[in-house]
């Protein structure tokens, strides 16, 4: 799905398109501005303890490479 917001085009995965549209519409209804930013495919999301363990292992691996 392509989304145009603030004169910019963003590509949104189809699996997220309904939720993204819902959030945008809710924010607009209450007068809030909606912003998007480009990111990297290398970004990771830390939401669980397991995610933190993976992150720590990645950090330790990078330190050992130098």
Topology readout:
Blueprint: E1 2-5, E2 8-11, H1 14-29, H2 49-64
Antiparallel strand pairs: 1-2
Distance, first to last CA = 41 Å
Gross morphology: elongated
Count every helix, treating DSSP H or I runs of 4 or more residues as helices.
2
Beta-strand level of the residues, as a percent range?
5-15%
How many distinct folded domains?
1
In helices, the fraction of residues equals 40-55%
Kindly report the spatial arrangement of strands forming the biggest sheet: 1-2
Class derived from helix and strand content: alpha+beta
Biggest sheet character: 2 strands, antiparallel
Mean pLDDT, all residues: 79
User: What's the total count of β strands?
Assistant: 2
Order of helices and strands: EEHH
Low-confidence stretches: none
Rg, please?
Answer: 17 Å
Structure, explained:
The chain is of the alpha+beta class and 66 residues long. It has one domain. 48% of the residues lie in helices and 12% in strands. The longest helix has 16 residues, at 14-29.
In short:
This protein is α+β, with helices and mostly antiparallel strands and 66 residues long.
Spell out the key features of this protein:
elongated, 66 residues, 2 helices
């Amino acid at each position: 799905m392509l989304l145009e917001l603030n004169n910019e085009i963003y590509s949104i995965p189809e699996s997220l398109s309904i939720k993204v549209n819902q959030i945008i519409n809710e924010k607009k209804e209450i007068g809030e501005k909606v912003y998007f930013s480009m990111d990297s495919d290398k970004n990771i999301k830390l939401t669980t303890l397991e995610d933190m363990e993976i992150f720590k292992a990645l950090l330790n691996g990078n330190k050992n490479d130098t």
